[in-house]
């Protein structure tokens, strides 16, 4: 079934978030609500994807356009309510010629909305021949949601909002998810005469169903997965939905053969990939496009952001961003890998080591208290504790090259740009300002002065 238009409602402020940021730009598992909903809806390939904005309109519109530059931005006017949002969208969609076919409408405060639920809703709508179909779910605690009111035969009569309902209506646990499918012609008629005659003084989209009943059949389809349609109105709901989703993600990885010692403290974003027999210890955040290979061990207390951890590597109590950790490499504890590192097979970046744009050859070790930035190190080289590459002269970032089979003493300082050849040995505390040829031994003067019988100031 072709989808003429999908309308994403994103004009609300989200007052209950108590935020300076519009609700739809809050993040859920690494992506904004808006992007997540646009992903779910965009996958249905609507002829037009419209996003309705008003509160911080520029900001929300920019976020929508940066996801998809073909998106139609609709500005809602000062009249509040979900119904008004749809009136504004339909008016603008109509400017491109009379609308026919099917229109999908969805709120944007449902971070787990998924394409499969929407597909099933569209199929149900087509097969039932109804002019309007609302996606519903049944909740143990329906507080805050619009209730689905049915007649004795089970037909949908209307939707009643929390603030407008009487006690028998509020006892209903079947709720409106704020996702609807309409035949375009039915929708035009259903929204023509909305009013603000209700507890919130808003144009309710929910009232459109009452009108739709007069011109066509109205149906309801229950979402197969209640979590996928849960709305977020405040930060308490945000935390609890994120938790529920994360536990599901962890559970699925465990069923796929990944050991997760403590799913309660392990947070895994949706695009992460993990091979079987990897072990994730407690307190880890696996984010972005991180991949973790077979037999790798991550954690405890490790953050990986767009990181690649290869076969059998171990990353402990560290933060790693946009870096590749080679097979059997050892990272941590307390290692900070900023973007752009390539750590070779069996290599090591140890305690209190920071690296940025460092290429570390196979078998090379940087075990303690070092900074390696804008540098490449050959194979089987060992860097003494407390060694620093001085890569920044205040204007430029300069490069350090250190060859293979090199033994750098403790506390060396490489003043970049500088090249150190293969097989070099350096003395402790050397300041290396000039290139060193292959096979050389290098040390720099560091005169030791001794003052006999020295008395500290407090004794003098
Ligand atoms: C709405 C529904 C309610 C449903 C619930 C599901 C109405 C009247 N009520 O209530 O039946 O159970 O969602 O979560 O529709 N928006 C606009 N323009 C506006 C107001 C809101 O675009 O003027 C957008 C918001 O950005 C949001 C969505 O519409 O994405 C829903 O708004 P919200 O204020 O969260 O409505 P609820 O009170 O949750
Ligand atoms: Mg809501």
Structural overview:
The chain starts with a strand and ends in an 18-residue tail after the last strand. Strands 13, 14, 16, 17, 19, 20, 22, 23, 25, 26, 28, 30, 33 and 36 form a 14-stranded parallel sheet that branches. A seven-stranded mixed sheet has the order 5-4-1-6-10-7-11. Strands 12-15-18-21-24-27-29 form a seven-stranded parallel sheet, covered by helices on one side. Helix content is 20%, strand content 30%. With 460 residues, it is of the alpha/beta class. A hairpin with a 5-residue loop joins strand 8 and strand 9 (156-160). It is elongated, with a radius of gyration of 30 Å. The structure holds uridine-diphosphate-N-acetylglucosamine and magnesium ion. Magnesium ion binds at residues 107, 109, 231, 233.
Treating each run of at least 4 consecutive H or I residues as one helix, how many helices?
8
Structural class: alpha/beta
- Helical coverage, percent range: 10-25%
Write down the overall geometry: elongated
Q: Cofactors and ligands present?
A: uridine-diphosphate-N-acetylglucosamine, magnesium ion
Identify low-pLDDT runs: none
Averaged pLDDT: 97
Distance between the termini: 94 Å
**DSSP strand count:** 39
Q: How would you characterize the largest beta sheet?
A: 14 strands, parallel
Strand content: 25-35%
- Radius of gyration, Cα only, in angstroms? 30 Å
Core attributes:
460 residues, alpha/beta, 14-stranded parallel β-sheet, seven-stranded mixed β-sheet, 8 helices, 20% helix, elongated, binds uridine-diphosphate-N-acetylglucosamine, binds magnesium ion, metal-binding
């Amino acid at each position: 079934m072709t989808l003429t238009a999908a309308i994403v409602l994103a004009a609300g402020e989200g007052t209950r978030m108590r935020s300076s940021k519009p609700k739809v730009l809050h993040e859920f598992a690494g992506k904004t609500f808006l992007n997540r909903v646009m992903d779910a809806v965009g996958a249905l390939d609507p002829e037009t994807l419209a996003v309705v904005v008003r509160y911080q309109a520029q900001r929300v519109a920019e976020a929508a356009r940066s996801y998809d530059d073909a998106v139609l931005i609709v500005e809602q006017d000062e009249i509040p309510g979900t119904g008004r949002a749809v009136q504004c969208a339909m008016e603008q969609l109509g400017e491109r010629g009379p609308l026919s076919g099917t229109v999908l409408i969805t709120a944007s405060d449902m971070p787990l909305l998924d394409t499969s639920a929407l597909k099933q809703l569209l199929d149900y709508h087509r097969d039932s021949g109804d002019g309007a179909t609302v996606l519903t779910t049944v909740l143990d605690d329906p507080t805050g949601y619009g209730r689905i009111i049915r007649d004795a035969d089970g037909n949908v009569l209307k939707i009643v909002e929390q603030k407008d309902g009487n006690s028998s209506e509020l006892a209903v646990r079947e709720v409106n998810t704020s996702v609807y499918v309409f035949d375009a012609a039915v929708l035009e008629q259903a929204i023509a005469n909305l009013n603000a005659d209700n507890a919130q003084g808003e144009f309710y989209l929910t009232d459109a169903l009452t009108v739709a009943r007069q011109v066509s059949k109205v149906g309801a389809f229950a979402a197969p997965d209640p979590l996928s349609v849960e709305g977020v109105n405040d930060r308490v709901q945000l935390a609890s939905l994120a938790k529920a989703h994360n536990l599901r993600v962890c559970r699925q990885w465990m069923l796929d053969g990944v050991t997760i010692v403590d799913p309660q403290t392990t947070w895994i974003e949706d695009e992460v990939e993990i091979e079987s027999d990897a072990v994730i210890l407690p307190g880890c955040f696996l984010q972005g496009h991180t991949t973790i290979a077979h037999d790798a061990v991550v954690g405890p207390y490790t953050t990986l952001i767009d990181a690649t951890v290869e076969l059998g590597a171990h990353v402990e109590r560290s933060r790693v961003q946009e870096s590749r950790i080679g097979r059997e490499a050892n990272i941590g504890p307390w290692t900070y890998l900023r973007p752009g590192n390539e750590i070779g097979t069996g290599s090591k970046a140890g305690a209190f080591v920071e690296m940025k744009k460092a290429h570390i050859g196979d078998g090379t070790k940087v075990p303690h208290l070092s900074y390696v930035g804008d540098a490449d190190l050959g194979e089987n080289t060992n860097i003494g504790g407390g060694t620093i590459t001085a890569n920044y002269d205040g204007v430029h970032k300069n490069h350090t090259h250190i060859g293979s089979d090199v033994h750098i003493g403790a506390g060396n300082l490489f003043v970049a740009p500088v090249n150190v050849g293969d097989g070099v040995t350096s003395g402790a505390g050397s300041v290396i300002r000039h290139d060193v040829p292959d096979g050389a031994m290098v040390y720099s003067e560091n005169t030791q002065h001794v003052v006999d019988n020295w008395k500290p100031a407090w004794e003098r």
